[in-house]
Amino acid sequence: MLGTLNKLQIDFLLRREMVGRIGCSAGGMTYVVPITYVYDGENILAHTREGLKIEMMRENPIVCFEVDHVENMANWQSVIIQGQFEELKGKAAEDAVQLLVNRLHPLVNSETMVPRHALEPRKTPVPHDVQVVVFRIAIKDVSGKFEKQ
Asked: What is the per-residue pLDDT for 114?
């Protein structure tokens, strides 16, 4: 059976998963890339290093974000978000990083999953040439689908 996820099911899926795919476009190019994230009930929060996706989202802040949970080809859920990229600074960035640390730290096995500067105590300093960008996707529209056998 194919169906549409309700608001509660969408919320549950966004809170359960940790990896989604962000789609952005600028300069005649479209780019889709996986990111780790946390959902705060209103926004998708994430961090990354300076690079192509940040350049593109700064140029065109309208983005698409997709999260799915697949048990098998006959049992899956998927959520699509239309939103707007917003770079965070100051306390808003600190609060977002703390939510990311709280959600992802128990599962960290890669130094790129959680900003090293956010972990206490500091074991290694962040290199001066690494520019970490904390951002949110402000959700403008959301929809979800599922198949269940």
From this structure: 47
